[in-house]
Amino acid sequence: MLIKHDFSLSRRDFIRQVLATAGGLALGNKMGWAAVAADRLVVAMSIGVESMHPYSQSSSPIYGLWTNVIETLVDSDFERRRYHGELAESWSAKGNEWTFKLRKGIQYHDGSPFTAKDVAFSYERILKDKRSIQAANLRDIQDFKVPDDHTVILVTKRPKAALLPLLYNRVVLSHKAAERLVDKLDDHAIGTGPYRFVSWERGSHFTMARNEKYWRRPANIREIIWRPIKEDAARIAALEAGQADIINNVPPHEVERLKRHPRLRVELVRGLRVIFIALNPAFKPFDNKLVRQAFNYAVDQEAIIKHVQEAQAYPLKGLLGPQMTGYDPEIKDYPYDPARAKKLLAQAGYPDGLAVDFYSPSGRYTKDRETAQAVVSQLAKAGIRANLKTPEWAVFEAEYNSGKYGMYMIGRGSVVDPEAFFIRYFRSGRDKRLSYKNPEFDKIFDQQSETFDPEKREELLRQLIRIVHEDCPTIPLYNTADAYGVRRDLIWQARPDEQIPVVNARFQA
User: Mean pLDDT for the chain?
Assistant: First the structure.
């Protein structure tokens, strides 16, 4: 049975109540939730869960929420740029088969055992479920073999060197729960993770409770409440009033002030998200390379990093940072040159400039709306009239995934290895987000995908980045610096992939 509580509160009312509370007093009785107890942790994020279907979203912070309840085969070791096992104990690759040995003795929250059939069921659902938007990551898999309960073999269409980056974030559901619950499976969110699902209300909360029978050491904190608070000011007000213990996306201008707060601290980490503008060649005028080049010359990335992000971001070379596989330090960025942009537009048949719709999230990334507004101002100097549109994130996510935008700003997270990034945006025929087609890119992409030698593969990845940089279906903006506001007495460490791990979090005595 789905448990529901009424935690609803408008964000405007939230800020009003926080500001009206003198002396930082807890608002628990008035608001129905509080972060004052040592056995409860409240996380306020800029986005929230929009659906209980775990495969109907593709956002790094939400991946992080789900993996506390439903786990994955592998996770990333960011420092070593490699992967380690979660539900998988070991793996090996031979030809077009990857064999995974699974951990034994693991149970789902309903008591059923975790087996290889669960992996096959989950991955098949990702591929076949019409509501899944993660299918592009697994389309190289053509078959699943289950020789025994603790072995699953993934058979790919061709040898696949970079399969592990595609399995990272793919949560594994229970096939027995699916047989029992049928179309009600997602209402119960049954996993193997350190926390059990308790309740969810869109726009209000996602609540989970400690799994006392977790196969590893049980979590320290009994209950976690995740609350979506889109506005930066509201999240910071919640943190300062003691109504949240962790918040994400602390805006640059608030970092130093929060560092001086006696009860708070700021966790800063260089992230793995690249922020860029997509120029979809399926839409005019972006089918013209001269136009795409003009747009690149018309945007000043350095000014955006310095003045909008207040230096709390890092420049990119092409579309990657130095902590990412395939980074090429020799790439030369397009310099900011509005005059040159105008000349290119004239050569493309637009001597008087042009007008375009420009879509951007608002509140999803740190200062995203302000960044988009700065881009609009810069484009205007090159004769480009950009009509900025900022739909709600749920609408934006659905529409850009469906290929409905010609120009939009987006962030690609968790880019340790760019395999999944390239599949979702640049390998033709794989995804609708950006209808980019380049036969040379496709050829080299397929070659690197089958190359198991790390050095040879990395050089092929650099070639791919050079192709994208020269063909410019995107405008690289920056690599994020992720800033979290945290209670000073909470022992917790940030990850670079925007996921908020809570299993090892604990309050100091």
Answer: 92
